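Write out the 3D structure for:
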Amino acid sequence: MNAVTKFMTRGIVWCVLCGLSAAVAAPTTPLTLSADAPDTYTVVKGDTLWGIAGHFLRDPWRWPEIWHQNDQIKDPHWIYPGDVLRLIYVDGQPQVVVERGGAVRLTPQVRTKDLDQAIPPIPYEIVAAFMSKPSVIATEDTRALPYVVALRDQHVIAGGVGDQFYARGITGTDPGTHYNIVRLEKKLKDPDDRAFLGYMAVYGGSARVDGQGTVDRRPVDLTRLSVIDSAREIIEGDRLVSDRAEIPLDFVPHAPSVQIDGKIIAVVDGVSAIGQYQVVAINRGHRHGLEPGHVLTSWQHADRVVDSRGRNPGVPGEFDQTFPHHVQLPDERSGMMMVFRTYDRVSYALMLSADNSVRVNDPVRNP
């Protein structure tokens, strides 16, 4: 597999296209630099482009707007550890240029790069871990995932290392391939119209493919697996998810071109308060205009408070009028997220900032 194929397959490179502004509607508000934006920044291993952008911009998702085409760099679409990013001004506008570090390797015939070392837009390992051990599974995935058909030796449950079972729906998989086992539990419904959207899922363990089943020496659509790690009992109907999640992240952050008004419907691990780098599910998908790379903001529902002055309409001066006893305080922006996987009516997004408390059922809108 060559480097370009790896890029397309694993997708851990963020292609910062200089012509992006022509493809999506440009924001009308002016760019605002961070109060402590540096003149230069040296990329280090472990960086993400979102984190780097936060050094320069108040709104990191607007990174492509300050990316400057380097004439001396033939391929400025990838950033590598060791590269130096320099803040300059072109016609009075802030721009960032790349001064290439030691990531480029030259041969007499061809210029090559190890694309696996390029800086991803968001923490790839968090997204991959969620997709391989999902706690939220959209309806489309529940129909496609392999599932446990039966346990060997007429067992009702399997739970010990070495226990074997048969699964249906696994095709073209070599012996030794690993799968994670998940249980579909609580149903997820759209809070707007109560439509069924998917399930909350619980991790049950992991298993290794032993081989394809046969009947009278003829292959059948059954694969035998052995349990190699157990977190709970395994039963018929449990789903199998590949532990090698392939999540394309070759996108740039941008605002949706249509108005999005959704809600957070679930969060990984089922916690009540949502923090930075947690995965959330929202009740909007590609039928609503969402796609990977879209940036959304979460909003905190404000409380209704008692207006004590409103109870005393006879107060002299500017309060000499009747006020309602209860006042609805305005919503406040609580965080920012980036969508990385979309389905028909559901999307998964990674919380990239959580300035205030973020919770299930909080509104999600355009930035």
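The chain has three domains: 3-125, 135-242, 261-365.
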